[in-house]
Amino acid sequence: MYDLPSENPEEPGLPDQFHDWQPQLLSQTFRPLAVPIEQVLTAADLNIYYDPNNPKYYKRPDWFAVVSVPRFVEGGRLSYVRWQEGRSPLVVVELLSPNTIEEDQGLTLRGQQPPSKWEVYEQILQVPYYVLFDRVDDTLQIFRLEAGLYREQSESRLWIEELQIGLGLWRGRFADWERQWLRWYDSEGQWIPSEQERVALERQRAESAEQRAQLAERRAQALAQKLKEVGIDPDSL
Predict the structure, then answer these.
(1) Is the bond into 115 cis (omega within 30 degrees of 0)?
(2) Could you report the per-residue pLDDT of 122-138, keeping only the tens digit for each?
(3) Which of 67, 71, 106, 192 could form a disulfide with 118 if both were Cys (CB 3.0 to 4.6 A apart)?
(4) Sign of torsion, CA 50 54 55 56?
């Protein structure tokens, strides 16, 4: 991992702000209850090295998630080295852009070296779920690995049965931008809260608890006053 980092000064930077914000929302809402959070890794633009015989070959997904590996390692991951980690990503999401759309969709020539992104995900890493999202027309393509090949699904959402978590399109505000976003939902079909939403929910719960405590205190004081008015000392009860 430390010999094979993700930094590459020769590669261009992120194409736009969406490629920065969308992975953040995916990571914040990927909270499968079936796996302890400390065994869930999510990453964006982190190199995946997949071939120990060609250790400089890598692919860099826009976002991916791996389960049953440590969420953090000492010093932080500089890359994801498949033959050291022991597990492939469970799901990969690519955000389509003009420079990469053909490779993302598996339309480039196959059998070359290094292999295409599609070949690596399908044949080498064997990623079970592969998702493509076109932010221009808000279209979603979902591929499942079936008998060693990707098959496009007709469903408009992805449901991962083994994790009891799903991925769909949500229209709302994130990073002060109102638009269609990819985000994860739970087994009841409810959108899993983002970090900002979790903070707001906790604040709301705390405020509600404080209001209930204040109401109970006022009721107790009112009752004590009524008892005093009829000659009963409330402290003697």
Answers:
(1) no
(2) 999 999 999 999 999 99
(3) 106
(4) negative
Contact status, residue 46 vs residue 92, Cβ threshold 8 Å: no
User: Which of 228, 74, 43 shows the shortest CA–CA distance to 220?
Assistant: 228
User: Quick check: 176 and 183 in contact, CB under 8 A?
Assistant: no
Q: Are 50 and 117 in contact (CB under 8 A)?
A: no
Cβ atoms of 13 and 6 closer than 8 Å: no
Take residue 32 and report the two structure tokens written for it. Answer: 């499968």
Helix (H, G, I), strand (E, B) or coil at 152: strand
Q: What is the pLDDT of residues 138-152, one digit of tens each?
A: 999 999 999 999 999
Considering only CA atoms, give the Rg of the chain.
25
Distances (CA, A) of 1 to 10, 25, 38, 39, 85: 20, 26, 19, 18, 10
Its pTM stands at 0.81
Instruction: Output phi, psi for 67, to 5 deg.
Output: -115, 160
| DSSP string for 23-37 | HHHHHHH---TTS-G
Q: What is the pLDDT of residues 97-130, one digit of tens each?
A: 877 788 888 888 788 899 999 999 999 999 999 9
